[in-house]
Amino acid sequence: MSPKAEAPARPRERLTRNRVIDAALLIMDADGIEAVTMRRVAREVGVEAMSLYNHVTDKEDLLDGICARVMADFRFPDEEGDWVATTRHGASEWRRVLKSHPNVLALFAERNKPMTDLDALMPMEFALRTIGRAGIGEREAVQVFNVMGGYIMGFVMMESGRMFGGGTMEKDTPSPDQMAHVLAAGQLPCVAAALPHLASCDPDEQFAFGLDLLLAGLQARYGLPA
Amino acid sequence: MSPKAEAPARPRERLTRNRVIDAALLIMDADGIEAVTMRRVAREVGVEAMSLYNHVTDKEDLLDGICARVMADFRFPDEEGDWVATTRHGASEWRRVLKSHPNVLALFAERNKPMTDLDALMPMEFALRTIGRAGIGEREAVQVFNVMGGYIMGFVMMESGRMFGGGTMEKDTPSPDQMAHVLAAGQLPCVAAALPHLASCDPDEQFAFGLDLLLAGLQARYGLPA
DNA sequence: GGTGTATGCTTACGATGTACGTGAACATAG
DNA sequence: CTATGTTCACGTACATCGTAAGCATACACC
């Protein structure tokens, strides 16, 4: 029974950068971005805080790892059909990835450096390739990429952040603080009229609506798909 | 010379919620979001940290105040012309506001509650009113609002955050770390081809490009302006 | 004058990121 | 086999963060 006699083989399995980042992502999804603490992550992987620094240089590095990790979740649609269909699938997939880790958008927003990880850039490669299949030149392809990417990220930000009411307007929270008071003052009639629709509109439908607007515009400008 | 004998009248002018928030916004614009510290804000307004709590309940409240303050910077365009022109001006103005405080987007992203301040909601009121002028019904107006708002916020996020390279590709930083290495590996040919355009494209032009796509789609769907 | 209400200051506490030093497990050379 | 160098986890320590609590000061109104 002496703990030294029989070597416990590998009492705890070796820590890994991936294990650290996975734990951090799990914490962020569950308890928000401010819950991602070196001590908390360490506890989650069964280790002391300082041990994490053997696998990440910084907390900054850890957060970068989370970003790359999320981008790696992107599942590439097949590229069989026309570019419009592929674009639609790619856009939906990007939205799915962002929505499945709702707090990662804040990370993206506060991180002012571009991604360098291969996994993180492959969705961009996919997008540019698909846009190129529409017969759009390299320079315009960049424009289209920024426009579509911006639309997707912004839309998810609005739908998950609920900056302008709507998400929090469940019936158990009929008047979030001063909002109702401001509305009752008679100003903001359009906002007041829009509130019930904010709560009831189907996000999927809205997303497709705007996406179709952009795609229709592109098709009109660059010709119909083959 | 006794400091008590001659009352210095008003040696420091009274602190105000607005003064606190203004200072915080200034710090955030200058040194980033993580530099906004209670102690730092206090020092900037010439006061000790705890004195701020007479004017804001939390740091949370302070950040909310920054958000509202930024929204209040919105300068409403005149609503003389047709709704398309008004929409274009409103969108550009919103982008201007967001770009003039580049770090506020991260604040918006990590704040999961809707705005309740009257000043913060007036741009939304303006947008909904303008959309309504196009003859779009209340329900669809909400969709259009979300689509346009998402596009604007997402576009600014991509152009100021530079998530996908481009901004940081100035000539003094030709290869940000591993990026060049990854590209040289031969994968990501489309990204490699796009990089020079990322750096050279005019953001204003790109923004108008996507905005026109959306507006053209709306006009096609809802009829031409009066 | 006295008195109450704002408002600012000081001290203090727990949590955070991380610099630094120690020690155990393992690989390889002699 | 021992000796030695590398890797990795641990523990301690410190500056800085948000903020709770108590005290001090100044002004409004009687």
Task: Give a brief description.
By secondary structure, chain A is an all-alpha fold. Chain A has helices spanning 17-31, 38-45, 59-71, 83-100, 104-110, 118-133, 138-161, 178-184, 189-200, 203-222.
Question: Can you walk through the features of this model?
Answer:
The structure is a homodimer of 226-residue chains. By secondary structure, chain A is mostly helical. Helices cover 62% and strands 0% of the residues of chain A. Chain A contains ten helices and no strands. The first copy, chain A, is flat, with a radius of gyration of 23 Å. The N and C termini of chain A lie far apart (74 Å). Chains A and B meet through helix 5, helix 6, helix 7, helix 8 and helix 9 of A and helix 5, helix 6, helix 7, helix 8 and helix 9 of B. The structure holds a DNA duplex (30 and 30 nucleotides).
